[in-house]
Amino acid sequence: MKKFWMLAAMALSASATGMIGSTPAYAEKRVALVIGNNDYRNIPALRKAVNDARVMGDTLKQLGFNVLFAENQTRKAFSETMLAFDQMIAPGDTAFFFFAGHGFEVASQNYLLPTDIAAVTQGQEELIRDGAFAAERVISRFQSRGARTSIFVFDACRNNPFEGTGTRAIGGNGGLAAMTPPEGVFVVFSAGAKQTALDRLSDNDNNANSVFTRNFVHELVQPGANLVQIAKRTQTDVRNMTAAANRLQTPAYYDQIVGDFVLQP
Fold it and tell me: For the whole model, what pTM was predicted?
């Protein structure tokens, strides 16, 4: 009888091992795409976007991300970089996307502008759609690759880059439109919807990074902070700093992640 129970236990153990082995296993990893665009050809160039991308890339590496970094991306280069990053994302991964550069909203849709975007005027908004990258499309690409958690940070809420392109310039002050991301996605804007972000607080502000990024990277590495805490602390930091300079900038976030997600345990 004792021998029977020993054999039965061995059989159950083997059966359990087989069941575990047959369950799909995802080797979750952290991957990030970081882009900074300064050298715009047809609209005002930027000073700090590339610096912001570089410090963000270094910070994400500290947090265990495999980082793909790119700067001053034309439409073609941006597309190729996105394609390369698609291949880095596997089901179950955590994917992080950071873009510093010009962004623009057309009919409540947000577009990330490559460096060779045309200097369009009123009535030519479709050229922006054709020549830029829709933020929502970038999000959907991550989702289609099976990323379990996707984090998007858009430091692209600057002044209207088309306001100086002639007497028929596209109206608006700049900034991005509010978003409703799908489940599993967390989005951060450097400023609130329709609000513009500051590169510097004053002419005496010699910090190499924008007001948002210098505060955001500080909060990212705080131990035990979840994404909402990071976003809200950044809101407070940036709002207090800009208010002291008689300006007002309040970063926005849009959270569709179930539960807490901590970057730095």
Answer: 0.86
